[in-house]
Amino acid sequence: MQEDAHLRLRARVIDDTLMLDAQRPEDGMLKGFITISVPDALSVTLSGQGTGMIHGFSGVDKFMIVADNKRRVTAKVSANELRVNAANETNLLLEGQGRSIILSATNRSLINAVDYPVLFSSAIAEENTIIYTNVANTLNASAVKNSIVNYKGNPLNLFTSELESGKVMPID
Length: 172
Prior knowledge:
The protein is built from no helices and 11 strands. By secondary structure, the chain is mostly beta strands. A hairpin with a 2-residue loop joins β1 and β2 (17-23). The radius of gyration is 18 Å and the shape is globular. The protein starts with 7 loop residues before the first strand and ends with a strand.
C-alpha cells in the first residue's frame, strides 16, 4: 500500500502559542503552503529548515521575529519596536519601517534590514554572521568572531564593539 506524499501537519496550542509540526514524506521532498491569520500576534517564531514569509503586521507597537535552523524568511512589517533573532544559518530579509530595531544573529546567519529604516538600531552579530541595518540617529553595534555589522545612514551617535576579527562599518 502506497501512501501519498502530501504534507502532514499537526497544529496545537501551548501557552497561547500556536505550534505547527510538519512531517516529511519518505522521499524527503516537503512541499506545501500554509497561511495563518493572527492579526493580534506579538511575535512569530519559525524553526526548522524551509522558507517563510511574514506580512500583514503594520502599525503595531512591539513585534518580535525569531528564526532558527537554516530558515529563509522574508518579513514585511512595520512596528514601533521590532526585535529580530536569527540563528543557525538563517537568512532573514526585512522590509518596512519603524522607530527602533534590535537585531541579533549567531552561527553563520544573515539579517538584512537595509530596507527597514529606523531612528535607533542595536545590532549584535556573533560567530561568522552578517547584519545590515539602516539607522538615522543612534547605532549600538557589536561584531564578534569574524562577524560584520554594516550600517546605512549617518547615525548621530555611534557605539561599537569589535572583538575577535569582528567589524562594524558603513555601507558605501
